[in-house]
Amino acid sequence: MYRHIWRNISPIVFANAALDFALALVALSSLSYLGLGTSPGVPEWGRMLAENQALLFTNPLGVLSPGVAIVLFATAVTVIGDWVYDRFSYGGRTGR
Fold first, then answer.
1. Whole-angstrom Cα distance, residue 44 to residue 68?
2. Where do the domains of the chain lie?
């Protein structure tokens, strides 16, 4: 099974895991922003967005930096998953 099946589905599994991780990151940040995440005192990007929302016009970096971090990290994980899929699918051949 390992030689024949896993070698053919592993790029799809890794790419799907990367997409699921990015989706879970955004969902967790959204729930934390709404106050439905973990308990107060735990540092989370969504909670940082919610707590610093009142400071948007006085300290915009306090709000924008967690938001940018969420977007960049989710995008980076998605791009890495796509790269793994492209690299290891089709036996590493270039040109489809």
1. 13
2. 2-92
